[in-house]
Design goal:
This protein is mainly α. It is built from six helices and two strands. It has a two-stranded antiparallel ribbon with strand order 1-2. A hairpin with a 6-residue loop joins strand 1 and strand 2.
């Protein structure tokens, strides 16, 4: 599996994040880390394609790919650490979502790291390939099982969150701002037009 195939997994993960966050009032602020990571990954891929195609780096193509892959892993790990707090603030009724997304992103990191390091192990430490494969399988299953158990234990909260979100969209009550007559949701604290506090 190549790095480009792993980008499909990364894209799926962040599209999943986007679909959860798109109906939220402040989703624009919460999407910024996702956009930053996405742009970082695209820029790293462009750098890799340019660097590998330069004749001077002809013998170092694998090392460039390894460096880019490991940097993508670093970006994803820093995203996990930074974004987990935001998810707990966004979904206070379902804090398990942060754990689930952290584990799924960690699984993607394991897959990318395995595919990046495997050729190096094959070339220099052929006898230890089984250790890399075993460690990757154990880590991969750990993150996958941890996500599955978290979903299983909190399925009632997840169901309430999903069906509650669908029912809330039909129950939005609009009022008018006394200052500027702008139509605002009943539960907002400030007018999004003039900033008047309710």
């Amino acid at each position: 599996m190549s790095i480009e195939n792993n980008l499909g997994l990364i894209t799926f993960n962040y599209i999943f994040n986007y679909t959860i966050l798109k109906n939220m009032e402040n989703s624009k602020n919460h999407l910024i880390p996702i956009v930053k990571v996405g742009i970082g990954i695209v820029l790293l891929q462009v750098f890799k394609w340019i660097a590998v195609s330069i004749p001077i780096t002809a013998g170092y193509g694998y090392y460039i790919q390894l460096a880019v892959s490991l940097f993508i892993c670093f970006l994803l790990i820093s995203f996990i650490i930074g974004y987990q707090k935001n998810l707990r603030q966004i979904f206070p009724s379902y804090p398990e979502l942060a754990v689930i997304l952290k584990n799924l992103t960690s699984l993607i990191v394991v897959i990318i790291a395995y595919n990046a390091i495997l050729p190096l192990v094959v070339q220099y430490m052929r006898d230890l390939i089984w250790v890399l494969r075993l460690a990757s399988i154990i880590l991969g299953f750990y993150f996958l099982i941890k996500s599955g158990v978290t979903v299983y234990k909190s399925i009632d909260k997840l169901t309430n969150l999903l069906f509650g979100a669908f029912s809330k969209t039909s129950e939005i009550i609009k009022t008018k701002c006394p200052n500027c007559e702008n139509s605002v949701d009943d539960k907002t604290k400030f007018c999004n037009n003039c900033g008047h506090k309710f």
